[in-house]
Write a structure and sequence with these properties.
heterodimer; A: MetI-like fold; 2 domains; two-stranded antiparallel ribbon; 12 helices; globular; B: alpha/beta; Rossmann fold; six-stranded mixed sheet; 10 strands; 25% strand
């Protein structure tokens, strides 16, 4: 018991204590949390592929599937599985939605990030988040009960559930998401750039369009692409507002049907394992691949893929 | 290059009874300072003494913060820059600023040089491509950067070394022909070699431009400025020729600071 002498040796006692156990447990939990996202995504992909794969190999006629507008899976004498009309439906709604959402959301992102200050800025950001949190069925409801009669009245058309309605609803839905990501991209531009430009006599607007926007362009493009991905994947609101009619639209007042809405509306009525059932899963695989590619592109763009 | 040898004693900036508040905090007290035209004047003093605040009042960049209040007057070549009819953009054309951290814009070297020039040149006075090239070359030659970057004018300025970036930040001010250059610790982010090169450059620009330089580095103030202002706690303590301030300061606070007793 030479109490003093102990101080001369370095403590090498590494027997685990409570902190050590907590540290290990937290590490394991974090690891599980981290890989679970990847495992789940792969799991979903495998499930969807398994259900659709036999259709792809046995019944799928590629030319018909992508080039025929006739989606008649329940036809008595000859079932056809053409998704062209559905692709055009989804694309036209998403396209219109982006034409509405992009200017609005980039505008509000610029306003929030560059002009609004203090409390005002915080309130606006909370409001945008709140908009993003509105459930899609509520948006669909608005499309069905408010926009529908409004469109009929204003444009004097027979049906108000059409590309215009769904595009507007989807645009309003995507706008807060694009705004919020675009605002992050603008915020990430170092303030030193703005200060430098202002010190050279640039006006607020010159600073924004000559310096801030070019510097944030990858992030902004990524925000827009994520909005497009959201548009492609959205189901409920589109199902309710688009009219759900298989149709190659000639103008924005035609009703259309979206890929996602088709799956949602028909899957419950098919026999599990039937050709119809499998064909819906094939649409699912197709959607999965498209949104995956859009999101991947967005991700690569945000990180700023360098040339070469 | 016009020499301002005959203007030795002309005053470029006349600061009178100037007070400055950040919100309710007063940062500058009753500043009266005459900056001589064509000379390098250094501002020294311990951290928080207000030297950067004073510098940033001369191009009104302080106002970015939105809660800054100023009274008194700052006359540049006879005109009070805080008058209502002063256009900030024009003021900043004539009063260029170099920052502590080199901050070239995330554009090409060429666009960095032409940035201020594009802002301050009317559309109808735009010059031809080859004249633009001459302008770029002249500006870059003046900061001894031309030979290094002449083959990569289109590559991004942010890939240059810090020393080159800082030189570029000086070069980009020159095409709009400023009269005054404000420098806020321009060498503090640079290594000794870069510091030496940039100091040399600043020294060469003397005469053509009136230069105000804030520095923490007393040796730098001593070797690279002609006049020196010592500030403490928001007040101007002493202003004289640099040798005088460093060798025979009049105020006790100045000699204590220079001797390294605080700060």
């Amino acid at each position: 018991m030479t109490g003093r002498a102990v101080n001369n040796t370095i403590q090498t006692d590494d027997s685990p204590d409570l902190d050590w156990y907590i540290d290990r447990i937290v590490q394991v939990l974090m690891f599980i949390g981290g890989i679970s996202a990847i495992v789940l995504i792969i799991g979903i992909f495998i499930f969807v592929t398994r259900e659709g794969i036999s259709f792809i190999f046995n019944d799928l006629d590629f030319a018909e599937f992508f080039a025929s507008p006739r989606w008649r899976p329940t036809s008595e004498w000859r079932a056809t599985y053409g998704i062209l009309a559905l692709i055009v439906g989804t694309a036209s709604i998403t396209g219109l939605a982006m034409m509405i959402a992009i200017p609005f959301s980039l505008g509000s992102a610029i306003f929030i990030s560059e002009f609004a200050t203090g409390k005002y800025k915080e309130y606006l950001k909370v409001l945008v988040e709140l908009l993003a949190a509105i459930p899609s069925v509520v948006w669909g409801f608005i499309g069905l009960t408010i926009m529908n009669p409004l469109i009929i009245q204003i444009f004097n058309v027979p049906v108000g559930l059409n590309v215009l309605n769904a595009g507007l609803i989807l645009g309003l839905m995507a706008a807060p998401i694009i705004t919020s990501i675009a605002e992050d991209a603008l915020k990430a531009v170092p303030d030193g750039f703005r200060e430098a430009a202002e010190a050279m006599g640039a006006t607020k607007w010159q600073v924004i369009y000559k310096v801030v926007l070019p510097a944030a362009k990858n992030g902004l493009l990524g925000a827009v692409l994520l909005g497009v991905g959201r548009g492609f994947g959205e189901t409920m609101a589109v199902l309710m507002a688009s009219g759900h009619a298989i149709n190659l639209p000639e103008n924005i007042f035609d009703s259309v049907r979206a890929l996602t809405a088709t799956i949602a509306a028909e899957l419950g009525e098919t026999a599990v394992g039937s050709v119809h059932y499998q064909s819906l899963f094939t649409i699912g695989i197709f959607l999965f691949l498209i949104t995956f590619m859009i999101n991947l592109t967005a991700d690569l763009v945000v990180r700023g893929v360098k040339k070469g | 290059m016009t020499s301002n040898g005959s203007n030795e004693n002309k005053i470029a900036i006349k600061t009178r009874n100037m007070n400055l508040w950040y919100g309710s905090f007063q940062a500058l007290f009753d500043i009266n300072l005459d900056v001589k035209e064509g000379m390098i004047t250094s501002l020294i003093g311990p951290s928080g003494c207000g030297k950067t605040t004073l510098l940033r009042s001369y191009n009104r960049i302080n106002e970015r913060l939105g809660y800054v209040r100023i009274d008194g007057s700052i006359k540049m070549f006879g005109k009070n820059i805080y008058d209502d009819d002063v256009e900030i953009s024009q003021l900043r054309q004539q009063v260029g600023m170099v920052f502590q951290r080199p901050n070239p814009l995330p554009l090409s070297i060429r666009d960095n040089i032409l940035f201020a020039w594009n802002i301050h040149t009317e559309k109808e006075n735009r010059i031809s491509r080859s004249e633009q090239e001459d302008l770029i070359e002249k500006s870059l030659r003046e900061v001894v950067l031309w030979d290094k970057v002449k083959d990569k004018l289109n590559s991004k300025a942010t890939f240059l070394s810090l020393e080159e970036q800082q030189k570029l930040c000086i070069a980009r001010l020159l095409p709009v022909k400023p009269k005054i250059l404000l420098m806020d610790e321009p060498c503090s982010a640079l290594d000794p070699k870069g510091t030496e090169a940039v100091e040399e450059l600043i020294w060469r620009l003397r005469g053509e431009y009136t230069i105000l330089i804030v520095t923490h580095n007393m040796a730098q103030a001593r070797r690279a400025s002609e006049e020196c202002v010592f500030m403490l706690m928001g007040k101007m303590i002493e202003h004289d020729r640099t040798e005088k301030v460093f060798e025979t300061p009049e105020q006790q606070e100045t000699s204590d600071y220079i001797a390294g007793r605080y700060g």
